[in-house]
Amino acid sequence: MGDFAADTAVEGDAGHYRARLSRDWEIWGPNGGYVAAVALRAAGAATPFRHPASFACHFLGVADFDVVDLQVTSLRATKRAASLRVSMTQMERPILEAVVWVIGEVAGLEHDTARMPDVPLPTKLRSFEDLVPPEERTVTYPFWQNLEGRPIDWIPWSQRQPGAPAWREWYRFRPRATFDDPFVDAGRALLLIDTMLWPAVCRAYPPETPYIAPSIDVTAHFHRAVPTCEWLLCDAVAPVAAHGLISGRSDIWSADGHLLASGGAQMLCRPRPGA
Predict the structure, then answer these.
(1) Is residue 273 scored above 90 in pLDDT?
(2) In the prediction, which pLDDT does 139 show?
(3) pLDDT at 198 exceeding the cut of 80
(4) Which residues, 6+ apart, have CB-to-CB distance to 19 below 8 Å?
(5) Above 90 in pLDDT, residue 202?
């Protein structure tokens, strides 16, 4: 089981950082949302501003579970905000290229008309551990040990029938669920935005589809921070799949009904290994 704060930590200064990717976050290699969260941490280390506003990246290569180098470059800086570029490489091989906006304490207009989907709270739902008998549990990738999931409409994965490409589920990180560092806290949402689109896609198809679809990019807008909120609702949909591409978007909600972050990703189909 991986600790999200420890496993996304970066070391260094003056725009030059290093991090070690942990195998605890493996799905088809290092999980894309996890790798993106490492880049977000590097941006946070390179600026005095403490409010991440947006993140967008291209995934350029699949990293090994080893050390990566991160170069953070200031593209624009004012008294209120900064735009940063984060380049992640491994043995000089490009892994990720990101742009990040961060802001300081800024006064401005305030309104909120976002409405969370009408779903049960996590305290009213059962976890996967409660729903699946121990003898039937199979964990394909270490990544899933890091999240406690409470599904809203429980269907055993191998018994699903094709339906709407949508996925709604509450998640809590473990062994630690909340984080004081605003860039780690935002990284929780970034990871869910990227990762849970594939389960949404799979809901439209029968089990054992012949493809996988890693993200080729991911974008997140961070609306507000509720770092004390353990449970996050991920509302993901993937409405279009065509020409080998799958487009999806995700909203991340707090248990008290606030929209914390929203974003999306483009996924590129690849034949499933062994299919």
Answers:
(1) no
(2) 66
(3) yes
(4) 8, 9, 10, 11, 38, 41, 42, 67, 68, 70
(5) yes
